[in-house]
């Protein structure tokens, strides 16, 4: 990849290659990740450093991220959008599917000491699914709401 990044190619082409070859691998399975805010910031930083390397922009050049990223959203925003899309897919599946038991039903048993681990529903921000269910069932409205909530589009 270093030869491609060092080549005298247009920055837009390098961005498209970066999204196709690097971002797709980085985000594989990301819709099911439960990340903390610290982990999201760390991923955003890694993504920015990798993009700067792809575009041959040194941190010493004092070029802001907005100037070199070409309008690409943060990687954490893309992960958030994918999570919301997966939640919409899962809610539209038939009621007897296994995912309903795993995702939407409350946990059973006794709680452990300390803070409880983050669940997928907590991460997506859909802890109260009653009001969102009708929105999630309409694919077009849910897609628009997801894009506007996440800020990607």
From TrEMBL:
UniProt name for this protein: Uncharacterized protein
Naturally occurring in which organism (per UniProt): Patiria miniata
